[in-house]
C-alpha cells in the first residue's frame, strides 16, 4: 500500500487564534479514526505553537514554510532549523515559487537551505516548477531539471529519506488551473529519473514527489492515482478543514 504525504501550506494566512481553531477543526474530523498517510500542515511561524498544541497526540504533523541557513545570531527576522525543531516541526517547505519570485531566492540559496534542513534532522520539501511561458515554449523539463539538480548536487544519497520534492507548475498555483493527471505524471516521472541519475534507482524509488497546484477534493483522486505522485502540497484547499480532510480521506482510499 502507498503512503502519501498530504501537506498543507497555509502561506501568510491564519494567526495563532485562527490557526489553532482550524487545526482543531481538522483533527476533530479524524477523532477516533486512524490514517496511514502522513498528514502535515505548515502554518505561519507565529502560529506553529498553537497548531502544535491542537495536534498533540493526533498524528498530524506541523511544518515550517521557510528557514534560514545560520544557527543563530544577528539575522533579524530569520528563523533557524533548531528553532523549528524546538517548536516540534518535522518538515520545512523550501524554495516555494512565491519565495523564488517575491524574495528573489536563487537555486544556490535554496540548495543551502535544503542541505541545512536535512543536516539538522528535519525533512525538506523542495518546491520546483515552471512558469506558464516556459511550459508554452516546451521548456518545462529543462527548467525543472536545473532546479532539481542545483539541489541534488549539494546532497548525498544518504539525504534521500529526508528529501521530498514538490512539483508545482507555477501556472497552476492559486489559479484554479490544475495540471492534468497526465502532465503531472509525466513530470513526476522525469523528476524521479533525475534523482535516479544522481542516487540510483532504489533511492529514487523511495523519494516522495508531491504535486502542488490547485489540488482539491474534486481532482485529488485522479492526481494521487498517478504512479509517480506520492502526495500533495495544497495551498488554498488546506485552509478549509473539510477540503483538506477530504483530500486526506481520498489518499487513504488509493
Ligand atoms: C501552493 O502554494 O503550494 C499551492 C499549491 O497552492 P494552491 O493549492 O492554492 O494552488
Describe the structure.
The chain has one domain (31-252): Aldolase class I (TIM Barrel, Alpha-Beta Barrel). An eight-stranded parallel β-barrel has the order 1-2-3-4-5-6-7-8, surrounded by six helices. Helices cover 43% and strands 15% of the residues. Helix 2 links the parallel strand 2 (38-42) and strand 3. The longest helix has 19 residues, at 181-199. The chain contains eleven helices and eight strands. Helix 10 runs parallel beside helix 11. It has 254 residues and is of the alpha/beta class. The structure holds phosphoenolpyruvate (PEP). Phosphoenolpyruvate binds at residues 9, 168, 173-174, 212-215, 233-237.
- Name of the CATH superfamily: Aldolase class I
Instruction: State the name of the first-level CATH class.
Output: Alpha Beta
Low-confidence stretches are: none
Structural shape: globular
Distinct ligand kinds: phosphoenolpyruvate
The proportion of strand residues reads 5-15%
Element-level helix/strand string: EHEHEHEHHEHHEHHEHEH
